[in-house]
Amino acid sequence: MKKILIIEDDLLISSLVQFRLKKDGYDTVLVKDGNAGITAIDTETLDLIITDVMMPFKNGIEIIHHARKTKPEVPIIVLSSLGEEEKIVLEAFNLGVSDFIPKPFNPNELAIRVKRILKS
Amino acid sequence: MKVKNAVALVSLLFLIIKTDIVLGQDEPVFADSVSFANFLKSQGKIPGLQFRLVDSSKAYILDSALNRSLQSGIVRDFATALRLKDSVLRSYEYDLEIQYLIYSDPNTFKATQEYVSNLLRNGDIEPTVAGDSNGKDLISLASRNKYSPFLKGTYAYFSEIKIFAVSLVILLFFIFAFSMILFMLIFKARRNQKEKLLVLYDEQIVAPLSEILFEKTLEELESLSDEELNGYFPAKQLKKPFYVQVLVERILALNKTMKGDFKLMLKALYKRLDLDKSSLKKLKSSKWDTVVTGLVEVNEMDLTEAIYAVKQHINSPNFYVRSQAVATILTLSDSVDLSFLRDQTFPLSRWQQMNYLRIIKFLHTTRELHIEMLFDSRNQSIRLFGYKLVRVIGRVDLLETLEEKSGSVTEEEKIEIIKTFEYLGVPAHTELINGSLKSENIALVSVAAKAAGAIGDATSAKIICELLNKAPEFRLKMVLLNSLQNLDAAVYNQFINESENPEVMRISMHLSDSLLQDV
């Protein structure tokens, strides 16, 4: 079973994403802040990381930096609001994230993108 | 040895000090021996003090003549001793002495006086005040009485207003401090309880919400029976206001984050759970913040049935209620035009204008809003907003109406109308620009001059030259020269060549410099 790490400080969104991905048969790890995200990247065996950008303690860019150093083979999807973080998102793409999904988003669309990335 | 000497010296010093203290306390109670004798006569029996009659050889005499049963010739009070002495003298012509016995030991008169004085000082005996002593020596009599305050206990306390006031302030301070601590404790306890409940309700809400959104279709959700729905969200919980509040907040937050069919699902769920009724109820609240919350909920969840209730708040005296009501009406209604805005009596703030503009900009392509209605408003800020709307959403078709209006509007409105013509690049009626150039209002002249550079004519150039010859202030001079340059380069060059004003030359050099012309 593929394991996906979800790093999102909004409990409601993270729970919905988790619910949707579990429905597709993925194993999920849910964390609420940047520090916990980095710990999970170091300790878990992951197939995909879904991360928000604006989060407590460490932002999404720092997490992407860390993931690229320690687990460069794991694909990353950024889930964030493009309007307020356009510059950061461009930086994330430069760091080699696999996809970017702006909020508001459709969880079904996210599930399709996850499936596509994990297949490839 | 030295230590012993030191101890002895300290002890001696202590004794001297102690003695001084004692001596210092020895205020004479009796002025002389006569007053002491009088005191003994009047006092009667004194504890530890006895008397007896003795002859010159100090042998005591029994009073058999008076038939008194005296033990060893001793009497307890001085008056009796005196009477015995007189009686012996009268009967036997035998003069006897009175001997003073303190605890049965013979003592001198002076020692007895000292002993009685100590008793009085220590309060061991109370002096007997004779009935006829009034007016004799009240001060000495008073000094023999123990002091006790006239007002005692609580009455004495309250009679001293300063102490009472200070005590009252201290008491109030403590009451206030305790009340504050109590209030903070209660507040903190309630907040903690609310936070715990929030976490609990979040857990209770997230799971069923996810299940409904991902497991059901819109049709299935709408056809759910009340019992089935209560399986997800218990009816008992839905009666709790805080649970309902958390549920509403979560649905609204999801509505903002989600897109596609999920939005429709959330709106359908909102109505199935009767949360729309709670939103409508909020619109009737007397608290403005609750009304605003209700308006936001109505707006977010597209509760079109609430339009009538929302309209009631359009002219609310509260700024936030009014702003949110207008924004909600604009978003919700498919048929509403801007007539409700035209009739507003309160001035529009910049923030409100920006807010309404954002909505109108989005709506005007799909709906006929009748922006021209705003030009007829009695409220100047609404009219100004109307002119700005024409400019921002590019309603060129309304420029003719604006031009017609321009003859009868205030100078502030003329400025907005001219800005609109200039922005859209459409030549205005020459009277609007040229007439404004002749105004006394510097701001209007400045705007008209700037517009003349883009949409002016030959008359405008002539008026600008006339204005420049009147030597206006520097900033206006700069605007006029810049406009003239844009409007007619030949006239501008001719004016510069003919001008001898060093300021005009400086501005001209600035404008002709390719690096500085936009600075």
TrEMBL record, chain A:
- Please give a single GO biological process term from the UniProt record: phosphorelay signal transduction system
Residues crossing the lipid bilayer are none
Xref: PROSITE patterns: RESPONSE_REGULATORY
Carrying 4-aspartylphosphate, the residues are D52
Q: Where is the Response regulatory domain?
A: 3-118
- Which SMART domains does the record associate with it? REC
**InterPro entries, A to Z:** Bact_response_regulator, CheY-like_superfamily, Sig_transdc_resp-reg_receiver
Q: Which UniProt keywords apply?
A: Phosphoprotein
What is the protein name for this chain? Response regulator
Protein species of origin: Algoriphagus aquimarinus
TrEMBL record, chain B:
The protein, known as: HEAT repeat domain-containing protein
What sections of the protein cross the membrane? Answer: 163-187
Keywords for this entry? Membrane, Transmembrane, Transmembrane helix
**What highest taxon heads this organism's lineage?**
Bacteria
Record keyword Membrane present: yes
Database matches in InterPro entries: ARM-type_fold
